[in-house]
Design brief:
Elements (H helix, E strand, L loop, with lengths): L2 H14 L1 H23 L2 H16 L5
Helix pairs in contact: 1-2, 2-3
Length: 63
């Protein structure tokens, strides 16, 4: 991963907390799945994004 991307992600965690960033990632995954279903009619790829959202949702962070 590029250093700039790592720095940007670290800044987000510092600003919002790790739990909040994970919640944002979960929502992004759900939106990507919805977009794939509605605009691209790609149910297979949408299911992968939904699975990723569920896995992120299961991560329990108390930092």
């Amino acid at each position: 991963m590029k250093k700039e991307a790592m720095d940007a992600l670290e800044a987000l965690v510092d600003e919002f907390t790790l739990g909040a960033v994970l919640e944002m990632l979960e929502r992004i995954c759900h939106r990507k799945a919805e977009n794939l279903r509605n605009h691209w009619k790609d149910e297979i790829l949408a299911k992968f994004w939904e699975k990723a959202a569920r896995q992120i949702e299961q991560i329990n962070v108390h930092i």
